[in-house]
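Researcher: Structure for this, please.
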Amino acid sequence: MSNKSYIKLATDLAAIANPPREDVGYFFINNFLLSRIDSEMPSDLKEYDEDVNVYTASLLAGVVTGQHDLLQSNFISTRDADVFARVQETKDQRLRYRVYKANADFLYVSLGIFGESSLVGDVPEPQEDAQSRLTGRGKSYYQFASAYAERLFGRGAAIAEVMDKLSRNFEAYTKVMVWMSGEYLHLMSELSSGEMYHIEHDTQEHFEKSHRTGSWDELLDSYVEWRKTHSKDARRRLARAAREVKRVDPSFSLKAFRERWSISRRDDELRRLSA
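Model: Predicted structure, token format:
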């Protein structure tokens, strides 16, 4: 839990010299537990899930205190294709785990606190369809995160179990978050649809910029490796990197790239392409 504290907004600071503070983590876990009772989903109803309470409170406290900045994460995208592309570009299981977990957390907080209207795409769709689509993504991301957590930390690892429970009961926990948002956080009436649009837009823009840079870095690294070894593995890596750059930049041509940056060019010149 975070050690950050806050002063209740309703406190009259002029009347109290040293107003009491509450731990941010305590604030969220207390309100999440109250919301579970209000939503007729008390803890340990079907299985032990107090670990989900702790995880949810810690996640929200991290967002509020800036220790877990979902909007600035280089791993997060509002588009499913971008998330899977980011995963496919690496064989690092820890990185794949972090990508899936970050996007699952983002959907969990976004759907629970702000509602599906904060994540709608460019193409209009019925509210129920949007809710179903985004819920499915959240469940899938947590499922993948759980699987990678088991590989990294071992079967029965606490974080893997939490991810698994969030995947299987994503709708229920999101429902509790929605109740908490309206009844205890009072956020639903505070943020306009325009403000939510900008939050989504900024998140996607940040991801695309980061992903574009990462794709070019991978292309340059794989090209340098291929020039040194001319191995089949290096060639396959270069081809994968080129396909990804082509996806984010349709004007890209690997042939033109190789002709322009021939072996006579210095490596530091090649690096300027990613700037």
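Researcher: Any notable elements?
Model: Residues 5-191 form one domain. The two ends are 39 Å apart (CA to CA).
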